[in-house]
Design brief:
globular
Length: 138
């Protein structure tokens, strides 16, 4: 209905993904989509994650990543923690500890990309939830 807005979102998505490890990007997108109950995005990004080589076990336990021990790398855990904090911003915001954890394992540029990816997928989730976009039938 608004192609210029769609184009702007696609540009934002591409900018957020630039130089970000695709596997990490998909984990961020899936975790935010789980929290936001976006079936369309979950369907899309779990398929994309598999194409990028994300292990099935990680996808199986992503909703409980914090309890999965060393299954997720330090960088993945930091990205997932800040993604959850951004997604659930109304529940206390991004704590100093969560931000410091991410800043300790990512360069400034990488951290900007991780934050941008979380913000972007949250926007997509809200658009798709608002217009009730169903996952495609296969």
């Amino acid at each position: 209905a608004s192609p210029e807005l769609y184009d702007a979102m696609m540009t934002l998505s591409a900018a957020a993904a630039k130089d970000l490890d695709p596997e990490l990007g998909e984990l961020i997108k899936i975790r935010a989509s789980q929290l936001n109950h976006c079936a369309f995005c979950l369907d899309m990004h779990t398929r994309d994650a598999r194409k990028h080589g994300v292990a099935e076990q990680k996808l199986d336990v992503l909703a409980a990543w914090a309890e999965a021990g060393e299954l997720f790398s330090e960088r993945e855990r930091a990205a997932l923690a800040i993604t959850e904090a951004i997604t659930e911003l109304g529940h206390g915001g991004v704590s100093d500890d969560v931000y410091a954890q991410a800043a300790a394992v990512f360069s400034d540029r990488e951290l900007g990309q991780v934050i941008s990816m979380a913000v972007t997928i949250n926007a997509w989730n809200r658009i798709n939830a608002a217009v009730r976009t169903p996952p495609p039938r296969r």
